[in-house]
Design brief:
The complex is a heterodimer.
Chain A: E1 3-7, E2 10-12, E3 18-25, E4 34-39, E5 45-51, E6 58-60, E7 68-73, E8 78-83, E9 92-99, E10 106-109, E11 113-117
Parallel strand pairs in A: 2-11
Antiparallel strand pairs in A: 1-3, 3-8, 4-5, 4-9, 5-6, 7-8, 9-10, 9-11
Chain B: E1 4-7, E2 10-13, E3 19-25, E4 33-38, E5 45-49, E6 53-54, E7 62-67, E8 70-75, E9 84-90, E10 102-106
Parallel strand pairs in B: 2-10
Antiparallel strand pairs in B: 1-3, 3-8, 4-5, 4-9, 5-6, 7-8, 9-10
Classes of the chains: A mainly beta, B mainly beta.
Amino acid sequence: EVHLVESGGGLVQPGGSLRLSCAASGFTFRSYAMTWVRQAPGKGLEWVSAISDSGGSTYYADSVKGRFTISRDNSKNTMYLQMNSLRAEDTAVYYCANRATQNWYFDLWGRGMLVIVSS
Amino acid sequence: DIQMTQSPSSLSASVGDRVTITCRASQGISNYLAWYQQKPGKVPKLLISAASTLQSGVPSRFSGSGSGTDFTLTISSLQPEDVATYYCQKYKGAPFTFGPGTKVDIK
């Protein structure tokens, strides 16, 4: 069975850093581009960042550009999101998801990981 | 960047009603549009890709149409299990922006 499982969330102070991980199983991880999508409490979905299957291409929303870094380790079937200079507005559930085809829509989602930025 | 809007932001309809949700892109995106359903407390689920291609396992009462800047998601006969928020997402190049969502509930 295919699975994506996020980890690494929690409470962090404004200006702090956190690294999220997304562990994949049940499919050939190295063949799939991946993405992070977040959802602030009571709000809608916001696309955050994406990475190609090889890791050679990365993409970011303007809201996180320069502060967040997406990466992956295909030998470990894991994707990461390094989040620096965190702000209160980064508080959200962070979902990882995979790109099903050659197009950037997402058909397999993790259960999400809550990140709270607060003093 | 291309902006995505949805209307209405929420709606209430009776079981069996036909429901239509509109998504609009600020520039043409051909048919590079997906629709997702997110039930309360659950993970988003992909319903439709390429504006009108129903994903495997999605009930046939769901359908999508449109191209360019204007798109619609239609539920032909609303069921209680369709209570959810529906999001469109454009994927013709980054950023892969989601619409603000349309909350659907039962009257």
